[in-house]
Specification:
Layout lengths: L10 H21 L3 H8 L3 E10 L5 E12 L5 E8 L4 H17 L6 E7 L7 H15 L8 E5 L5 H15 L23 H16 L8 E5 L5 H10 L3 E6 L4 E3 L6 H11 L9 E3 L11 E4 L18 E3 L8 H9 L3 E3 L1 H4 L2 H15 L5 H26 L3 H20 L4
Parallel strand pairs: 3-4, 3-5, 6-7, 6-10, 10-11, 11-12
Antiparallel strand pairs: 1-2, 2-4, 7-8, 8-9
This protein binds nicotinamide-adenine-dinucleotide (NAD).
Nicotinamide-adenine-dinucleotide binds next to loops.
Length: 425
């Protein structure tokens, strides 16, 4: 048997958490809350760390570590994705869970915030191993999941198959099929129309509206997209379809650039065939980090957190950043960007299309009644643009950044729920 000791928390996870705490502290200071409320809002309600013993295909056993953090449950059950990555650690999951709380409150979705993850590189496991890992992880957390308790969804390194296995494991253990325990399921198994591309659709919708409202112009605008996974790929496609020129995209293996605009359909075929944007013949290779510094109208970071930092923020030449990823901009970078006039549409609004349609999926599953794709896309559009209009108007009035404004609205809603519920006992 191979013994795998969980690695120490990465500096990245701690940085991410400290950024999330900083954003909350700033909002709390603006709202004038006392220390008790600050602690209530900052502290996760429940955190679970589980050991996941996995029998590998060759017979040996390895033990992986999984997490689930339920940051806040004051407005409803926990809600948030499951991440499979070798970089996952508890501080990172805490930060991501906290952002889910603010995102759900901002979009007025009746959920709290949660997040989970397993410290594993899923590409190193066979499909059968992955299935055993998912099922054991789900089983270990089973008592703390459920349609009224905590509802996972896909995130980095997981997908609708992961959700199907989670739903099945939970359902078998309970003796009844429970569709509402996860969202982001396959269409044939209680999934919602429009869910797979919902995050990207929301990113593109908000980006186009922001370009228009801020007078940057859509017609010949240029875009760079970092990350070409579930969020980045369709965001690039939607923006390209809307008439923008996507001049650069990247993934963890490489980046390609073409001033005349990349052929997104061709690029998608290349990625489907090779697994990466790297070596795409329709563009020239560039170093991945250069993508963030290109002179574009719109930059969409849609990969991982902490990519726009104190070190590179001054080199960012995009006029508008729309955060497809969670936490791509550190608080120090945020300050620099604000000073140099770069507008940032924050993650808790920009990428909220995913949780919004997850909510629609949960509502449909609970009612056993399915909406059309047109219904879904219309409801997504109305709710996201309402939130955009509210944040933009308030930001214009107060001079606060879009992120500060969004955080104030979200944090105040969660605090109000706490006050109305009171403190038990
Ligand atoms: P994914 O695993 O499908 O794709 C991630 C992409 O980022 C891949 O193309 C990967 O190669 C790339 N990448 C990783 N590190 C990179 C780096 N250093 N430079 C450039 N590219 C890099 O994950 P996803 O679901 O697309 O999630 C991306 C981000 O969006 C995450 O921050 C996630 O939390 C956030 N998000 C996802 C959803 C959703 O519905 N999937 C919803 C809201 C927010």
């Amino acid at each position: 048997m191979t013994l795998r000791t969980p690695q120490a928390h990465s500096a990245n996870g701690l940085d991410t958490l400290s950024g999330a705490h900083q954003q909350l502290a700033d909002a709390v200071a603006q709202l004038g809350y006392d220390d008790g409320m600050h602690q209530t809002l900052a502290t996760p309600r429940r955190e679970m760390t589980v050991a996941i013993p996995l029998r590998r295909d060759h017979g040996a056993v390895e033990v992986f570590t999984g997490y689930r953090v339920q940051h806040n449950l004051s407005r409803g059950p926990g809600k948030g994705g499951i991440r499979f990555s070798p970089h996952v650690d508890l501080p990172e999951v805490r930060a991501l869970a906290m952002w889910m709380t603010w995102k759900c409150a901002l979009l007025d979705i009746p959920y709290g915030g949660a997040k989970g993850g397993v410290r594993v590189d899923p590409s190193e496991l066979s499909v059968a191993e992955l299935e055993r890992l998912v099922r054991r992880y789900t089983s270990e957390l089973g008592a703390f999941l459920g349609p009224d308790v905590d509802i996972p969804a896909p995130d980095v390194g997981t997908n609708e198959q992961t959700m199907a296995w989670m739903m099945d494991t939970y359902s078998v253990n309970r003796g009844r099929t429970t569709l509402g325990v996860v969202t982001g399921k396959p269409l044939g198994l209680g999934g919602s129309r429009g869910r797979a591309s919902a995050t990207s659709r929301g990113v593109a919708l908000i980006a186009l509206r922001a370009l228009e409202d801020l007078g940057i112009g859509v017609q010949h605008g240029t875009v760079a997209v970092q990350g070409f996974g579930k969020v980045g790929r369709d965001a690039a496609r939607f923006l390209n379809d809307a008439g923008l020129r996507v001049v650069a995209v990247s993934d963890q293996y490489g980046a390609v650039h073409n001033d005349r605009g990349l052929d997104i359909a061709g690029l998608i075929s290349h990625v489907d065939a090779t697994g990466s944007v790297d070596l795409y013949p329709g563009g020239a290779p560039i170093p991945r980090e250069v993508l963030l510094e290109l002179p574009v109208d719109l930059l969409v970071p849609a990969a991982v957190e902490n990519v726009i930092t104190e070190e590179n923020a001054r080199s960012v030449r995009a006029r508008l950043i729309v955060e497809g990823a969670n936490g791509p901009t550190t608080p120090a970078a945020d300050e620099i960007l604000a000073r140099q006039g770069t507008i940032v549409v924050p993650d808790i609004l920009a990428n909220a299309g995913g949780v919004l349609v997850s909510y629609f999926e949960w509502v449909q599953g609970n009612q056993s009644y399915w909406w059309t794709e047109t219904d879904i896309n219309e409801r997504l559009s109305v709710r996201m643009l309402d939130a955009w209009n509210q944040i933009r108007a308030s930001s214009e009035l107060t001079g606060r950044t879009l992120r500060e404004t969004a955080m104030l609205i979200a944090v105040e809603r969660v605090a109000t729920a706490h006050r109305s519920r009171g403190l038990y006992p």
